[in-house]
Amino acid sequence: MSRSRLLVVGILVSVTACEGFKEAMTAHVDVAAKAGSQELSVQHLADMMGKSQVPIRKEVAQNIAEVWVNYQLLALAAANDDSLNDPDVVDDAMWSVYTQERTRKWYDKVSANFVSDTSNLEGKFNEGALLAARHILFPVPAGQEATGSDSVRKKAEAVLARATSANFAALAKQYGSDGTKDQGGDLGLFPKGAMVPEFENAVRALKPGEIGPLVKTQFGYHIIRRSTYGEVKDQFSKQYEAIGKRAAESTYVTNVENGGKVELKPTVPKLVKEIAADPEQHRKDKTVVATYKGGELTAGRLVKWIGGFPQPDQVRMQLQQAPDSVLQMFVKSVVRNELFLLQADSVKIQLDTAEVNNIRRAFESLVTNSWAGLGVAPTALADSARTKDEKARLAASRVDSYVDRLIQQQERFVEIPAPLSTALHLKYEGKVNDAGLDRAVQAALKIRSAADSARSAAQPKSTVPIPSAPATPGAQDTTKK
Q1: How do residues 223-251 score in pLDDT, each as one tens digit?
Q2: For residue 48, is pLDDT > 70?
Q3: Phi-psi bin for 431: left (phi > 0), alpha (psi -120 to 50), beta?
Q4: How far apart are CA 8 and CA 34, in angstroms?
Q5: Phi/psi at 446 (nearest 5 deg)?
Q6: What pLDDT does 164 receive?
Q7: Domain 123-231 is found in CATH 3.90.190.20
Q8: Which of 164, 229, 232, 384 to pair with 65, CA 20 to 30 A apart?
Q9: Eight-state DSSP code of residue 473
């Protein structure tokens, strides 16, 4: 969902809006948001918040205003019978999807060369490249570490004396106490560091097929048998091969990053937070955030990347609150994606006609589903209105009513996905007035306070006498003269 705010008059110059639109917003100080010719007044927004149960905070007001803008722009498109199917608009809006598909195709091609050394797998298993074991756990009851430990240890030792490779699984099912009990104590394969040190060291001290002495960990006493290669060879082969491929992938990515010669600008933390707070203001911003061999990451490009992440609104919120070090890591990860795209370009990775058409059809579904959810589909408007102006008024009215009911929790929320929001803002004008939000919040607080006072006054008074608070020792009694 696009987050678009209009800054105060002193910094109102916006490269994404026409002069007439900016003048209209500055002239209407009682406007919280505008979408096309429709306005969300400060008073209407204040009434919605003050007379509902939503928290009265600036960020909540902004979310409501931005939802309203997206809904109204979608309604305007419906009134114009505009399915937003201009290929240039769709391709721009679905940029992140195209990027993901190209990167996936590139990775599939590159990763085909990621191979793992699968020679002498049994030797690698015996050396502990991956460990495998079964165990029988005898936990010490909580609070009885001092008094109960000895009895638990003796019970475990008695079972250990009977344990063999042949009966180990049966004993685990009989005496085991953790989630592996029903699997005969089988822990499967696990890498270095997956188990507590005492347990892992005990497994490594055993030869495959051996049962070791009793081992005590924070979980209790363990009888351990190290599995043989023959018992786990199929799983070991698959996991070891996967580990090898991940290692090859990691090496490849590191080489790409090192070869990219990435350099971040000193203003990265400040700029990223500004972008996260108001992406629309920076959509065409050519300020350089970072450079790398073969290109540069601009603020506008970063806006597109953020919009392409799953749940971009949450990403933006987290970025605004993140420390500088995290913001720098985030930008580096985005630059890494840029480097991957350069790699895809170098091997001429493109989407074919069928893939492009599938993506465009997916966008069409976003439009039609959102129209249907809000009840503003062109066919639904045509039933009650004839001219374009009549349809626009009807669609706007339906959105206003829908948002009112939504804030009262009488409607389900219709999400406008980021690509659709991008397309709407590419085709139509929509802005949120930051100063108007401040005024709406203040007005909503007064409305909520008045409503709370009215409810309190309407409560029937108790017929049971309420004792007064005890007097403070030494306080002067003012009821007597």
Answers
A1: 999 999 999 999 999 999 888 888 888 89
A2: yes
A3: beta
A4: 15
A5: -65, -40
A6: 96
A7: no
A8: 384
A9: T
| CA-angle at 471, arms to 466 and 473, nearest 5° | 160
For residue 422, CA distances in Å to 18, 81, 279, 360, 403 come to 17, 18, 11, 14, 21
Tokens of 385: 């209105």
In three-state secondary structure terms, 188 is strand
The average confidence (pLDDT) of the chain is 87
pLDDT score at 50: 95
Q: Look at phi and psi of residue 17 and say left if phi exceeds 0, alpha if psi is from -120 to 50, else beta.
A: beta
55, exposed or middle or buried, with CB in 10 Å at 0-12, 13-18, 19+? exposed
Distance CA 93, CA 425 (A): 10
3-class DSSP assignment, residue 310:
coil
Statement: residue 462 has pLDDT above 60: no
In degrees, rounded to 5, the angle at the alpha carbon of residue 414 between the alpha carbons of residues 409 and 418 is 135
- Provide mean pLDDT across the span 434-441: 94
Q: Which helix (H) or strand (E) holds 221?
A: strand 220-226
In angstroms, the CA 45 to CA 68 distance is 10
Please give the structure tokens belonging to residue 322: 């993140």
Q: pLDDT tens across 154-170, in order?
A: 999 999 999 999 999 99
| CA-based nearest residue to 165, from 223, 235, 234, 205 | 223
How many Cβ atoms sit within 10 Å of the Cβ of residue 347? Answer: 10
Do residues 185 and 128 lie in contact, with contact meaning Cβ atoms separated by under 8 Å?
no
Rounded to a whole number of angstroms, the distance between the first and last alpha carbons of the chain is: 68
Report the DSSP pairing between strands 295-298 and 38-41.
Answer: unpaired
- What's 130's DSSP letter? S
Check pLDDT > 80 for residue 469: no
Write down the pLDDT at residue 21: 44
* Model pLDDT, residue 148: 63
| Helix H or strand E segment including 212 | none
Strands 186-190, 215-217: parallel, antiparallel or unpaired by DSSP? unpaired
Phi, psi of 353 (to 5 degrees): -60, -40
pLDDT exceeds cutoff 90 at 54: yes
pTM strictly above 0.90: no
- SS3 category, 222: strand
What CA–CA distance (Å, rounded) separates 435 from 8? 6
Query: Token pair for residue 386?
Result: 């004839």
* Residue position matching structure tokens 């608070």: 469
Tens-digit pLDDT profile for residues 197-222: 999 999 999 999 999 999 999 999 99
- The answer to whether the CB of 76 falls within 8 A of the CB of 64 is no
Can you point out the beta strands (E) in 240-292?
Answer: 263-264, 288-292
Residue 332 has pLDDT above 50, yes or no: yes
Return d(Cα 75, Cα 54) in angstroms, integer.
25
Contact 208, 228 (CB under 8 A): yes
